[in-house]
Amino acid sequence: MQNDNLLISKIQNKDEAALSELYDSYSPALYGVIIRMCKDEQEAQNLLQDTFLTIWEKSLQYNPEKGKFYTWAYRIAKNKTLNFLRKSKNLIQTEDLSVYTNKEDNINIDPEYLQLSGCLKQLEKHHQRALELVYFNGLTHREAHKEMDVPLGTFKSYIKQALKKLQLSYNKSMLWLLFFIEMIE
Amino acid sequence: MDKAYIIEHGILELYLLGELTPEEQIQVERVLNVDADLKNEFDFLETNFEKMAFENAINPPKEVKEILLQKIKKNQPKIIPLERNKTYKTFLYLASGIAACLLIGSIWMFTKLDEANTQIQIVEEQNQLLLEDIKALTSNLEYASKYLSIVNSPDTEQYILKGNALAPEAKVVSYVNHKSKSVIINTAQLPKLDAEHDYQMWADVDGVMIDMGVINKEDNLLAMNYIDDAESLNITIEPAGGNDHPTVSKLITNVYL
After folding, report:
1. For B20, which residue in chain A has the nearest alpha carbon?
2. What pLDDT was estimated at residue B78?
3. Which of A119, A134, A163 is the closest to B17 by Cβ?
4. Which bin fits A149, alpha (ψ -120 to 50), beta or left (φ > 0)?
5. In angstroms, what CA-CA distances link B174 with B83, B143, B146, B232?
6. Interchain proximity A134–B69, CB inside 8 Å
7. Residue range B193-199: average pLDDT?
8. What CATH fold (topology level) applies to the domain A2-88?
9. What does the domain layout of chain A look like in residue ranges?
10. What is the three-class DSSP state of B236?
11. Is there a contact between A68 and B50 if contact means CB atoms under 8 Å apart?
């Protein structure tokens, strides 16, 4: 965290090496989000690059007091990807006059590749799906509850429960980690 | 927006995802600044959010980074000085352009001014000439009207002086008005004299020749002095400028009144 703040202040002073280091730390996490949202490898790479260009150009707008660097970068990446998806959707609609409804048609990527892992996997399916839609597919709550075909209130409680469980499981793994460290010592 | 509302409506999570309006964002930030509990909750949420992302990270191909760094290198050192240079140069071009325009404009205006001045001078000269013409015409008109009024008057009598053997082709028409005491003669048919001689007119009063004036060579119609009780009008050839006494041998015409 401290290291990140140092890197960011270097980036604000246009230090290319700092950007390179920050890219190494955060690009896989951001790429994971972008590619799950747009489901197109080539476009995801373009959007990732575009995201880091914006980070480079607008680094002065980041305020560490308001949140983590990842949160700020995630918002940039999500907005870029959603804008791209909106544009390409409009394009497809105007080109063949048919409404582009089935998103799955456009996937040119192995779904296995995009499967979620980590603590998310330990959640119940509907909790997992709810978090995936919101965090990794960039849907708003209003879009996501329709996607899951449950009322908005139900969807919101899914998210709340999912986050609570996630918190517990992270705490648990943290306990295990601490326990192991104790053991080793 | 208070703590209870924020927790109940899952606002922190929307804030995390950047889905609030700018106003709502500011409100949430205000509450987070003063409420340590809520801030703690948000930190947890954010930490988990980040962990989840790192657990689901996918490595992008290496080329993405290479291209990114190239793009940054390409943009960074060039953009700023180039733009400054460009604007500086543009200003320079613009300024020199304006200066050139002003210079050419001034030269053009100066020539125009010079032309205008010359034209004004010409016009003034012409005006002067025209004024003189008008003066001359007015005096001519005065003369002509005066002559015409005399010639046309019913009191005017017309006498024709025909040339004798000395000047057989000479013919002078004289208009004599005894009431207004004026004499006008038309000398259009008097033969031309050399520079040393002039025609002079005389009135005969009781055998004495009285001078009526030298006939001006330039005019065809001219007024002569009226002499009371004149018995005849006579014209002689005299030395230039006229004579005190008529040279009778040079009498060319006469008429009895």
Report:
1. A140
2. 47
3. A134
4. left
5. 101, 16, 15, 12
6. no
7. 89
8. Rna Polymerase Sigma Factor; Chain: A (1.10.1740)
9. 2-88, 111-184
10. strand
11. yes
Give the one of A45, A52, A135 whose C-beta lies nearest to B61's C-beta.
Answer: A45
Instruction: pLDDT band for A1, please (50, 70, 90 cuts).
Output: low
Beta carbons of B53 and A117 less than 8 Å apart: no
Distance from CA of B85 to the nearest CA of A (A): 21
Contacts 24+ apart (CB under 8 A), A22-25: A22/A55, A22/A69, A23/A52, A23/B65, A23/B68, A24/B65
Tell if the pTM clears 0.80, that is, is over it: no
Q: Using one digit for the tens of pLDDT, what is the confidence trace for A98-149? A: 443 444 445 566 767 777 777 777 888 888 888 888 888 888 888 888 888 8
Residues in B touching A29 (Cβ below 8 Å): 50, 53-54, 56-57
Task: Report how far residue A36's alpha carbon sits from residue A16's, in angstroms, rounded to the nearest whole number.
Answer: 28
Any A CB within 8 A of B69 CB:
yes
- On whether the CB atoms of residues B14 and A135 are closer than 8 A, the answer is no
A111-184 placed in CATH 1.10.10.10: yes
Which has the higher per-residue pLDDT, B50 or B79?
B50
Give φ, ψ of B187 to 5 degrees. -110, 25
Q: Do A53 and B59 touch (CB under 8 A)?
A: no
- In terms of phi and psi (left: phi > 0; alpha: psi -120 to 50; beta: otherwise), the region of A67 is left
Contact criterion met (CB < 8 Å) for B50 and A167: no
Nearest Cβ partner of B69 from A20, A29, A118?
A20
Structure tokens at B178: 């005894």
Task: Kindly report which listed range (A93-102, B40-49, B225-234) carries the lowest average pLDDT score.
Answer: A93-102
A137 min Cα distance to partner chain B (Å): 12
Contact predicate A125/A153, CB 8 Å: no
